[in-house]
Design brief:
Radius of gyration: 15 Å
Number of domains: 1
Helix content: under 10%
Shape: globular
CATH class: Mainly Beta
Strand order of the largest sheet: 2-1-3-10-5-8
Number of helices: 0
CATH architecture: Sandwich
Strand content: over 45%
Structural class: mainly beta
């Protein structure tokens, strides 16, 4: 099989069960097995759904900063707790725990890569945003 370059910014990479890897269009497929790798050039908060919270109830999520810097916000797990702010700069990553609501705000235009399962993700509009 020939090896060809994959445009990470217009494709999803599916790390499938049994060690297979598949690249395809950026249409999420919640029924696909294995893990999903996505990459985005984010110039504004709108590029990372800054007005929304996201959660994956099926898996942890790795969020990494390849270029730039941004803040990863995690909602409190209980009402009596405070949320968390994690500052990520180029070459760093954070693991978002399974079931933890999170969002991103850019400090500078950034290139972001995330790895998680394609199923179990939900998004909700942020109050006031």
């Amino acid at each position: 099989m020939p090896v060809t370059p994959i445009d990470l910014f217009s494709s999803l990479i599916h790390l499938r069960q049994g060690g297979r890897v598949h690249a395809g269009p950026q249409a999420p497929d919640p029924d696909r097995d294995g893990w999903r790798l996505t990459a985005v050039h984010a110039k504004t908060d709108a590029d990372v759904r800054g007005g929304h919270w996201e959660v994956n109830t099926e898996a942890e999520t790795v969020v990494s900063c390849l270029i730039g810097k941004f803040r990863l916000y995690l909602r409190p797990e209980r009402p009596d707790q405070e949320g968390e702010e994690v500052r990520l700069r180029a070459g760093t990553a954070a693991i978002v725990p399974r079931g933890r609501w999170h969002r991103i705000e850019l400090d500078t235009p950034s290139t972001i890569m995330a790895v998680t399962l394609p199923r179990g993700s939900r998004v909700e509009r942020r109050a006031g945003g």
